[in-house]
Amino acid sequence: MMLLVSVIALYSCGAPAPGGGLSPAEGGWATSVTATNRPMRSQQSPVLTVGQTEGDLTGKDDKVIQAGVEYLNRLGGGTLRILPGTYTLQNAIHLRPHITLQGSGETTILRKAGSVVTPLARDSDWFEYGVQVKDARGFTPGGGIMLRSKSGPGDWQYDVLRATVTAVQGDILFIDRLTQKDFWTEKEATAATIFPILTAENVDDVAVKDIVLDGNRDKNEHINGNFAGAVFIQHCNRWRFENVAARDFNGDGFSFQVCDDIQFRNCQALNNADLGFHPGSGAQRPSFHGCTAKGNSLGLFFCWSVCDGLVENCTLSENKRFGVSIGHRDTDNVIKNCAI
Predict the structure, then answer these.
(1) Which domain holds residue 36?
(2) Which pLDDT value is given to residue 36?
(3) C-alpha span between 203 and 256 (Å, rounded)
(4) Do residues 62 and 167 both lie within one domain?
């Protein structure tokens, strides 16, 4: 005769709070785990602080902020909090996936250093790691550099390379990537310390909050918004900007090219030389809530084939040319409750 006995062991698991977890006031998952027999299955993202005199990392320039970004990137993402102060940038801040860059409001300012520009002294071909210039003063290792040569009569018709200087030897500037294009003297090729304040290519899921981006317009060379801006991102998706001010950039305030689901909430584009907000070619579902564009050449510029966007409760006024521009194959964008 066979006896089958079924034994069920019950352990107290405790019911989670509505929404899947306990609130921070209740101690969050830490309390839930220690008070019950639940496994620790929820990851907690790290938080790192950068400050000028205090914080996990201290400094006053782009290098300390970039160091914080790279440290968090190694851990899979997290929040980099930038304490109050004005940080002078010799290069762009290159953001990485799953990073939140959070300032302290109007007291955290990322300001671009003044630019220099010089003609190339000899032709540079598309497979080189350096260029010879007429005047190397103002270029430093670790600093941002932009190579440009004319490809047509318009101010957007350039071949452009954004890179970082790795070494300066006499009048030779070495860079961290291949030139990729021909930069020839007959096409008025130049090298300049032009770069965005915040930038990325092929990077998804980023948030930027509570910070001022200052382009230092009077001391910088003008650059078309197809190549740079206070914010310039390409092929990036699911970015969120909250309480971010882009001001006084000698070009665009916010420029995002071929990017989907980019959200702006309570952001400001102020006194930029060109476009305040520039959802670029192919951008899908951009959204703007409670944003302001004033003092720019143009407030909100829908580039080619921007679709399914939403602009609500925004102020797009007192710009030098137009409040809003809609162009080639832009469709199904909703603009409501705005002052234009």
Answers:
(1) 1-42
(2) 83
(3) 12
(4) no
At a CB cut-off of 8 Å and minimum separation 6, what does 80 contact? 48, 49, 50, 65, 68, 69, 72, 99, 100, 101, 102
Q: Per-residue pLDDT tens for 203-239?
A: 999 999 999 999 999 999 999 999 999 999 999 999 9
Q: Are residues 90 and 28 in the same domain?
A: no
Query: In terms of pTM, does the model score above 0.85?
Result: yes
| pLDDT value, residue 29 | 53
55, 159: one domain: no
- Please state, in angstroms and rounded to a whole number, the distance separating the CA atoms of residues 302 and 125: 34
Q: What is the mean pLDDT of residues 144-166?
A: 93
Q: For the chain, what is the domain count? A: 3
Q: What is the pLDDT of residues 286-340, one digit of tens each?
A: 999 999 999 999 999 999 999 999 999 999 999 999 999 998 999 999 999 999 9
* 163, 191, 219 - which closes a domain: 191
Cβ neighbours of 152 (radius 10 Å): 8
- For residues 283 and 204, membership in a common domain is answered with yes
Instruction: Return the pLDDT at 43.
Output: 86
* pLDDT of the residue at 15: 37
* Residues 259 and 314 placed together within one structural domain of the fold: yes
